[in-house]
Amino acid sequence: MFSIQYFASVREQLGSAGETLEASGQIHTVADLTAMLAARGGAWTVLEDRHAVLVAVDQTVADRNRALTGHEEVAFFPPMTGG
């Protein structure tokens, strides 16, 4: 089961702070998970924009090619700047 979290403007756009999803035999990578979520349409398509949304797996920023086993926490969040 995936624990999925949405932060900051991503949370606002989607109207959700998070959800849990059963691991599917179709989801092998972060890209697969992202595509499945984006297939919901509407605001969900923002998740596929690599410039607007970053991904962390188990609290570590991850590439979209990162393999998933189905037991991870996956977080989607906008790029951050500091100052």
List strands and helices in order, with pairings.
Elements: E1 2-6, H1 8-14, E2 18-21, H2 30-38, E3 54-57, E4 60-61, E5 73-77
Q: Might you state the CATH topology name?
A: Ubiquitin-like (UB roll)
Radius of gyration: 12 Å
The percent of residues in helical segments reads 10-25%
Give the amount of beta strand, in percent. Answer: 15-25%
Shape: globular
On the 0-100 scale, what is the average pLDDT?
A: 95
Number of strands: 5
Q: Based on the coordinates given, report the CATH architecture.
A: Roll
Contiguous helical run count: 2
Which parts are unreliable, with pLDDT below 50 for 5 consecutive residues or more? none
CATH homologous superfamily label: Beta-grasp domain
CATH class: Alpha Beta
Q: For the largest beta sheet, what order do the strands appear in spatially?
A: 2-1-5-3-4
Estimated structural class: alpha+beta
Total tally of structural domains: 1
Reading the helices and strands in chain order gives EHEHEEE
Distance between the termini: 37 Å
**Largest sheet: number of strands, sense, barrel closure:** 5 strands, mixed
Summarize the structure.
The chain has 83 residues and is an alpha+beta fold. It has helices at 8-14, 30-38; strands at residues 2-6, 18-21, 54-57, 60-61, 73-77.
Descriptive account of the structure:
With 83 residues, the protein is α+β, with helices and mostly antiparallel strands. The protein has one domain (2-77): Beta-grasp domain (Ubiquitin-like (UB roll), Roll). The chain has two helices and five strands. The protein has a five-stranded mixed β-sheet. A hairpin with a 2-residue loop joins strand 3 and strand 4. The longest helix has 9 residues, at 30-38.
